[in-house]
Amino acid sequence: TMLFCHNILNISCVKSNWSNDIRASLYSLMVLIILTTLVGNLIVIISISHFKQLHTPTNWLIHSMATVDFLLGCLVMPYSMVRSVEHHWYFGEVFCKIHTSTDIMLSSASIFHLSFISIDRYCAVCDPLRYKARINILVIFVMIFVSWSVPAIYAFGMVFLELNLKGAEEMYYKHVHCIGGCTVFFSKISGVVAFMTSFYVPGSIMLCVYYRIYFIANGQARSINDMNQKLHIGLKEKHGISQSKERKAAKTLGIVVGVFLICWCPFFVCTVMDPFLDYTIPPTLNDALIWSGYLNSTFNPMVYAFFYPWFRKALKMILSGKIFQKDSSMCKLFLESNP
């Protein structure tokens, strides 16, 4: 039997008719994703805020991205969870627009941060001598400002001015719009714009930058090896450290790019294709792909936890309560000049 969200049947959305067991399983899985996202990103925020040694320009960029991902887990995912499981929006039409705008804004802001972090790492690996002069706190502040403001203007402007419906208004109001629903609808034009702004441009920057870092880091490693073989001097160990650092930076960024592509690519490809396929992609699949995108915010702190020893040390201090001790903020988390 069909369950409707509203008593006027011809304008009402259809509620989900899943059994209680399926609902309970979905709620459990989504609550786990939300809690993992909140805890992981909160640990990054606390670590970078608390420990003085982590107050570097790069880390403020990571801190800002963790804040975006934390807010996504806090303000967006819980409402999306209810909508995904119940196929019904309980929170009113105005809040639907606010939720949709915030969702698009924070998801895009997270992606923007990732592309700026890849640019920052590119400068660190490929031009280490001029890195500190080029990437100072002001440059990082501009990156953070752009990462927040551009997605905010784009998301809220598009949803509240209904630019996402442009060219497909009739189709939307006749066949898609219903009472009790809250779906993100894109026309052909707005779907392409969303794909370009939130995925293709930042994603391409990340891929190109990673490609360059990979080859430069490999080239540097080879030239250091050659030099070591020629010199046979005690500098070998020092070069080995910088060589492994560069390789680690390339590897970390590679994983970040890979996770980003796996999480977001299916959603954005479907978003851009759906209007051209006459909206034949089922809403349940679309929902699953949105959650796949959310997982990117869940995985981001895990990548850092896995690759950065300072993160693991900070995590131990937070969990053991040592950060409440006097002068714990001055604790040394790593030996090199850069994390």
From TrEMBL:
SMART domains: 7TM_GPCR_Srsx. It is a multi-pass membrane protein. One of its GO terms (biological process) is phospholipase C-activating G protein-coupled receptor signaling pathway. Residues 40-304 form the G-protein coupled receptors family 1 profile domain. It is found in: Cell membrane; Endoplasmic reticulum membrane. Gene3D superfamilies: Rhodopsin 7-helix transmembrane proteins. The chain crosses the membrane at residues 26-48, 60-81, 104-123, 135-161, 193-213, 253-277, 289-311. CDD domains: 7tmA_TAAR1 (cd15314). Keywords: Cell membrane, Disulfide bond, Endoplasmic reticulum, G-protein coupled receptor, Glycoprotein, Membrane, Receptor, Transducer, Transmembrane, Transmembrane helix. GO terms for molecular function: trace-amine receptor activity. GO terms for cellular component: endoplasmic reticulum membrane; plasma membrane. It holds the Pfam family 7tm_1. Belongs to the G-protein coupled receptor 1 family. This is Trace amine-associated receptor 1. It comes from Prolemur simus.
